[in-house]
Amino acid sequence: QVQLVESGGGLVQAGDSLRLSCADSGGIFSTYTMGWFRQAPGKEREVLATISYSGYHTWYPDSVKGRFSISRDPAKNTVYLQMNSLKPEDTAVYYCAAGSSPITTPKEMGVMKTFGSWGQGTQVTVSS
């Protein structure tokens, strides 16, 4: 069972950067596409970035391209989300997720929102 724990959220000012981390304690991290999504009160879930198990393939929606970057460190069983030039509208709870199966591609996970497991989330608040 994939167990994901996010960290790194907090209160920052507009224009700041933040790096979120997601640690997998389930032991099957390396075989799954991983990703990040966020959800703000009253808004739909928004996928921010996904990355293949190899780390070679990524997917981003146009809304965050150039500002957010996903990476993973297999040796540490950790996925990261680097967020730059943060805006107040980036305020949300951020979740790390694993694809619904080992064959889920980054684009499928991003477009179809095919999540299998996700963590408890970490709050990111951006003040103006």
Topology, please?
Layout (H helix, E strand, L loop, with lengths): L3 E4 L2 E4 L4 E7 L9 E6 L6 E6 L6 E2 L8 E6 L4 E6 L8 E8 L6 H7 L2 E4 L3 E6 L1
Parallel strand pairs: 2-11
Antiparallel strand pairs: 1-3, 3-8, 4-5, 4-9, 5-6, 7-8, 9-10, 9-11
Provide a brief overview of the structure.
The chain is mostly beta strands and 128 residues long.
Explain the overall architecture:
With 128 residues, the chain is mainly beta. Helices cover 5% and strands 46% of the residues. The strands form two sheets. Strands 2, 4, 5, 6, 9, 10 and 11 form a seven-stranded mixed β-sheet that branches. The longest helix has 7 residues. The radius of gyration is 13 Å and the shape is globular. The mean pLDDT is 92.
How would you classify the helix and strand content by structural class? Answer: mainly beta
Low-confidence stretches: none
The outline comes out as globular
Question: Strand-residue fraction?
Answer: over 45%
Structural Rg: 13 Å
What integer is the average pLDDT?
92
Helix content: under 10%
Give the oligomeric state. Answer: single chain
What tags apply to this protein structure?
single chain; seven-stranded mixed sheet; four-stranded antiparallel sheet; globular
